[in-house]
Structure formats: C-alpha cells, structure tokens
Amino acid sequence: MGKLTVLALRAVMVALHAGAVSAQAVMVAMLTGAMQESILVDRRTPALVITILGVVTVQVVLVCVWRLVTMAQRGTVFSHAAFRYVHLVMGAFVAASLLVLALGAVLAPGDVVPPGVVALLGGVSLAIFGNALIVLVLRMLLAQAVARDVEASQLGAELAEVI
User: Fold this and answer.
1) What is the pTM of this model?
2) Which residues, including other chains, have CB under 8 Å from residue 35's CB and lie 6 or more apart?
3) Which residues neighbour 39 within 8 Å (Cβ) at sequence distance 6 or greater?
4) Cα 70 from Cα 58, distance rounded (Å)
5) Which long-range contacts (CB under 8 A, 24 or more apart) does 48-51 make?
6) d(CA 125, CA 133)
C-alpha cells in the first residue's frame, strides 16, 4: 500500500472515531436529560443502550481496520493473525445489524414514530447485514491468499533444497 493511501485512510478513521466518541457523548446527553418531555420518554433506556452499543460496533470496526492496514503496510496481512480482525469486523457488522433491528422493534409499537421509519430501520439492518456477508466473502479470499502464500513458501523451500 502506498504511504499516501495509508495516511489518508488513517486520517479518515481518526475523524470517524472522533465523530463516534462525540456521537456517544451527544446521545447520552440527549437521551438522559433532554428527553424528559419527549414522546420517547418511556423508551429512553433501550434507545440509549442500543445507540451506545451501535457506536461501539463502529469503533470496533475502525480499530480492526486500522490493525489490518498496519498488517498490510508491513506485508503480514496474508497470515492467520489477520483472521482475528476479520472475524471481529464480521461480528461487529452482525451485531450492528441486530441492534438496528432492535431499535426498530423498540420504536415500532404505538404512534411514536411513523411506520416508514421502522421500515427504513429494517432496510438499514438488512444493508448492514449485507456488509457482514461481503466481509465473509473477503475472508474467504483472504483464506485462499494465505493458503497460496503458505504453498509458495513450501515450494520455495523445496526449490532451495534442490539447488
């Protein structure tokens, strides 16, 4: 990977992480104090928990991608150690999908939010789950690349013995 690409990606990830921390702070403030007179007052705690956990899933993905970029920069991404981070990313996407679905379930009863918002949350949940499936496909490609790398190392060792 080029140095400029890595620098740009890391700058974006730092900005996203700072935004996630800010969003957590704002959501806590909004959902604990400002919602005293809101129509969502009876659903404040579940909405707060779901929101905070949702932002945590974003932070997990950012940290894992940071580690994978570091591994790619060092040339060690095609190793079994990379699978740990890929699995965490997949798990975070699945968790985020379930959290968005749970938020829709919390908001669905009654006339608190329009049905279109709940349907939109269902669509967002499906899109996030689709990202988890994309990461699964990329994991399979990583597994093939690691296997090819191991095979190439073995062939190189055999060739060195012959020479």
Assistant:
1) 0.82
2) 41, 44
3) 112
4) 18
5) 50/99, 50/102, 50/103, 50/106, 51/24, 51/27, 51/103
6) 13
Contact 71, 81 (CB under 8 A): yes
Written as six digits, the tokens of 100 are 């968005």
CB count in 10 Å sphere of residue 115: 9
* Structure tokens that stand for 145 in this block: 């690349």
Comparing CA positions, the residue from 55, 31, 46 lying closest to residue 106 is 46
Contact residues for 154 (Cβ-Cβ < 8 A; gap 6+) = none
Q: How many CB atoms lie within 10 A of CB 45?
A: 11
Rounded CA-CA distance 60/81 in Å is: 17
The neighbour count for residue 100, using CB atoms within 10 Å, is: 23
d(CA 147, CA 154): 11
**CA geometry: angle 63, 57, 33, nearest 5 deg:** 120
Tell me the average pLDDT across 8-35: 80
pLDDT tens-digit map of 45-104: 788 888 889 989 999 999 999 999 999 888 888 888 999 999 999 999 999 999 999 999
pLDDT at 5: 86
**pLDDT band for position 128 (50/70/90)?**
very high
Query: Residue 73 in contact with residue 55, Cβ under 8 Å?
Result: no
